[in-house]
Amino acid sequence: MIEIENVRKSFGPLEVLKGINLTVAKGEVLTVIGGSGSGKSTLLTCINGLEPIDSGRILVDGVEVHAKTTDLNKLRRKIGIVFQQWNAFPHLTVLENVMLAQVKVLKRSKADAEAEAVKQLNHVGLGEKLKVYPSRLSGGQQQRMAIARALAMSPDYMLFDEVTSALDPQLVGEVLDTLRMLASEGMTMICVTHEMKFAREVSDRVAFFHKGVMAEIAAPDQLFGAPKDPELQKFLAATH
Amino acid sequence: MFDTALTANDLVFLAKGAGMTLLVTAISVFFGTILGILFGVIRYQIGPWWATPMTLVLDVFRSIPLLIQLVLANAFITTVLGLRISGFAVACGVLSLYTAAYCAEIVRGGIESVPQTLRRAARSLGMTWGQDMTYVVLPLATRVALPSWIGLALGVMKDSALVYIVQVVELLKSTQILITRLQEPLFLLMICGLFYFLISFPIARFGGYLEKRWSND
Questions:
Q1: Cα distance from A73 to chain B (closest Cα, Å)?
Q2: How many domains would you assign to chain B?
Q3: Among partner residues A50, A91, A133, which is closest to B124 by beta-carbon distance?
Q4: pLDDT at B217 over 70
């Protein structure tokens, strides 16, 4: 379970998170929508401790992420995150990309790591590309590789930060299909996205962020069908 | 012109000089690079402000002519400190620091070329700072820094000619000794240049080979 309690975060004079309260249960798929600068991406990087917070607290399975005594490297093993940029390690093959952290962080044997990598890469449809360097992959393929790389760490939670935003339109579908598959397998996921149709389909709940505040959170039918917040109404009107 | 007094023994003498040049260069580039990586990583990690004292010292090594550094270091060590240390050791020490000063900047530039987003990805997989550095940042930085580093190594090889001032008989000094004796300066300098080329060329080629191998295609 991820528990976010009254989290505040500023970049200089700009307060990007103004007291967020949110709980994500095991097995839940939460999507977060909102305009740019609404704080939704920042929230994800706070959850795995890549960004410090100013006040409040975030608990992952009861462990306080920003406590000084927390071993972040250990905590991050159970939280996978995939970013907007593809972030393939360019000097490693697709297979090596997915093996590296397994071997170095989880201390798996090379054989185990390779087996797991092959399994995850097959899972995201890249089983044919094992020996290829990332520069030879399309954006969509690189992004699926990044997903496989995170999944290979056997995380309990997956965070997706606008993973389709940097892709050519014709490549968005294949990545969203991968996310749909994960959701259907019961992975606990928080997806920050601009893909409204996707959000509506896969989510258990959808949260709308506006200027650092979580303005509304509801089941997708309710949030998209009968939005209450005036800013959300404006946002949905503009994105449809 | 083809009538020369140069003997086979003289050629062996020159080859020994070339060997000394290669030895001084290899030692200096080896230790200079290790120190340079250390200084470069520190410089990158603690930021320009905190690194000011270190940068200042490195700048001194970069901006004072090597010849002066060698003479002063030699005088300081032997006269002021009173240590009995060979000219060869002084030469290697000074050249190593000189190499390190340049190498630190090359390393810093290489590290900065690795996108921050890539490092976030590595850390988010649970990799520690050291693992990120070892398996992601430095391999990538090496690829970027390699051409400059090869240039530095070749430069140090030529600069090493100056260590004659601390009584190390390397390639150029050997040539000068022969010139004094044989009075055939142009011919001997040509031979000397050829020796320099013969020891530099493999290094340059090796760099080219690595670059090609790392291009991933």
A1: 4
A2: 1
A3: A50
A4: no
Specify the CATH number of the domain A2-239: 3.40.50.300
Looking at the complex, report in whole angstroms how far the Cα of residue A67 sits from the nearest Cα belonging to chain B.
17
What percentage of chain B reaches a pLDDT higher than 70?
98
C-beta separation of B201 from B43 below 8 A? no
- For A29-53, the pLDDT digits (tens) are 999 999 888 888 899 999 989 999 9
Q: Which domain holds residue B131?
A: 9-214
Chain B contact present for A228, CB below 8 A: no
Residues of chain A with C-beta less than 8 angstroms from the C-beta of B121: 83, 87, 146
ipTM of this complex: 0.85
B175 inside domain: yes
Res. A140: pLDDT tops 70: yes
In a domain, B3, yes or no: no
Alpha-carbon torsion A8, A12, A13, A14, what sign?
negative
Which residues have a Cβ under 8 Å from the Cβ of B73 and sit 6 or more positions away?
B90, B93, B94
Q: Which residue of A has its CA nearest to B121?
A: A87
Asked whether the beta carbons of residue B143 and residue A91 sit closer than 8 angstroms, the reply is: yes
- Per the document, the length of chain B is 217
